[in-house]
Write a structure and sequence with these properties.
The chain has about 325 residues and is of the alpha/beta class. It is built from 14 helices and twelve strands.
């Protein structure tokens, strides 16, 4: 039997389905990180997510996967090389096992100040690093992101001089430069993956460690690490990476949209957090109950210069050239 109502519903339903499909994202980019959703990584990720939607007109959707959902930070770079992870935020020092030249940025006190750091990462040296990393590993470095200093903390004693570091069991990432740096400072470095770190600190397996300041708050380390030490020995930044497998799925226009979104997100988020370090330090003291010390850094810097020289000699010509380029950018 002819049903006029049914005949009307079918075209309307078809139109609705067509409209819905046009609104949905055509491409999904799963971007992971190891920290909590409200950490610096998560906040940077949200800005990137918004920028990608804006640049692509909603065609590309970024889905953020916090807390090691799709990979751990220690395994994510290899996963991107294999094409099993689309994108990930990885702390620079955890990239070094896969691309040793990244250790140039990990060298203690290699950057003289924030302006020097910006000139390196946003200029010719930064672009050279992006190009070389992709050529060597296939992984795309989309944006370096905001850079913040790492602060030291421990559960044993205040640190007023380098002599106070003697014998402290310090958690360090599995990174040769960072291990050598804490050895030069007189501590006993204990290399641990990030996933093992909170438990090791809480149980006293290690006496302390260092992180970007916000992570000390985000991970609630202040609850069992009472001593905050302002050394500014390492710069902490967590670049956003993407796999070649994911980037190869995109058209030239879409790749441009992803790169533009990453660049803008990095700049915008860096502005957001530009004054945050000192604010978080204040919070850690007033609200978190930590006791802060600001040691004289002369002995630390002298020890760090020895580490810089040793690694330049050990790593070869390409490493030395990159160190020289970074130093030249300070002028």
């Amino acid at each position: 039997m002819f049903n006029p109502l049914k005949q009307m519903v079918i075209p309307v339903l078809a139109l609705a389905l067509t409209a819905t499909s046009s609104w949905a994202a055509d491409i999904t980019m799963n971007v992971g990180f190891g920290a909590p959703e409200e950490s610096l990584y998560g906040r940077f990720g949200k800005v990137f997510q918004e920028k990608v939607a804006e640049h692509s007109g909603g065609v590309i959707e970024v889905k953020l996967r916090c807390c090691n959902q799709i990979s751990s930070e220690d395994e994510a770079f290899k996963a991107m090389q294999l094409g099993t992870v689309d994108g990930f935020f990885i702390t620079a020092n955890n990239v070094s096992p896969h691309w040793p030249l990244m250790d140039v940025t990990v060298l203690p006190y290699i950057f003289q100040n924030a302006e020097h750091l910006d000139r390196v990462l946003d200029g010719e040296v930064g672009q050279m690093m992006k190009d070389q990393l992709q050529a060597d590993t296939s992984v795309h470095l989309l944006a370096f992101g905001p850079a913040l200093y790492r602060d030291f903390y421990n559960s044993v004693r205040p640190v007023n001089t380098m002599a106070d570091m003697e014998g402290l069991k310090v958690r360090v990432p599995k990174n040769e430069v960072m291990i050598a740096t804490f050895e030069a400072f007189g501590a006993n470095p204990v290399p641990l993956a990030w996933s093992e770190t909170p438990t090791a600190l809480q149980t006293g397996t290690v006496d302390g460690g260092d992180n970007g300041t916000s992570f000390i708050r985000d991970m609630k380390f202040f609850e069992f690490e009472p001593h905050l030490v302002i050394l500014e020995h390492f710069v902490a930044f967590a670049p956003l990476f993407a796999s070649d497998t994911f980037m190869s799925k995109l058209s030239d226009v879409q790749r441009g949209q992803i790169l533009a979104a990453a660049t803008e997100a990095g700049a915008e988020f860096a502005q957001q957090v530009s004054t945050e370090t000192e604010e978080v330090r204040e919070w850690l003291v007033t609200e978190g109950g930590m006791a802060r010390t600001d040691p004289d850094r002369a002995d630390f810097i002298k020890a760090a210069q020895g580490v810089q020289q040793a690694f330049a000699e050990k790593r070869g010509e390409a490493f030395i050239e990159l160190v020289n380029a970074i130093q030249a950018a300070a002028e």
